[in-house]
């Protein structure tokens, strides 16, 4: 498992409009938010797999719940 999201800082700078400096505290907060989002996505996919009586979380389970998790994350 990766200790750090790959190329996260470069992705943020690429998507931002204009020159953006990302400090170490901000970068840490972004990575924590990313991990929280992925954790909630995994929990919802696990529940969906359990509903379908599957022991393994498959891509179809993640696809079935990703829109709901994105809406929760946006607020």
What does this molecule look like?
The chain contains three helices and no strands. It is elongated. With 75 residues, the protein is mainly α. Helix 2 crosses helix 3. 69% of the residues lie in helices and 0% in strands.
**What integer is the average pLDDT?**
82
- Total helical elements: 3
Beta-strand content: under 5%
Strand tally is 0
The multimeric state of the shown protein is: single chain
N-C termini distance: 29 Å
| Helical coverage, percent range | 55-70%
Order of helices and strands: HHH
Largest sheet: none
**Rounded radius of gyration (Å):** 15 Å
Low-confidence stretches: none
Keywords:
single chain, about 80 residues, 3 helices, mainly alpha, about 70% helix
Task: Give the SSE layout.
Elements: H1 8-15, H2 24-51, H3 59-74
Helix pairs in contact: 2-3
Give a quick precis of the structure:
The chain has three helices and no strands.
């Amino acid at each position: 498992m990766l200790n750090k999201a790959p190329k996260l800082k470069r992705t943020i700078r690429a998507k931002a409009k204009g020159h953006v400096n990302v400090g170490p505290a901000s970068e840490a907060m972004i990575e924590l938010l990313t991990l929280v989002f992925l954790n909630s996505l995994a929990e919802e996919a696990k529940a969906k797999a359990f509903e379908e009586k599957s022991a393994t979380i498959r891509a179809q389970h993640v696809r079935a719940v990703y829109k709901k998790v994105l809406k929760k994350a946006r607020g």
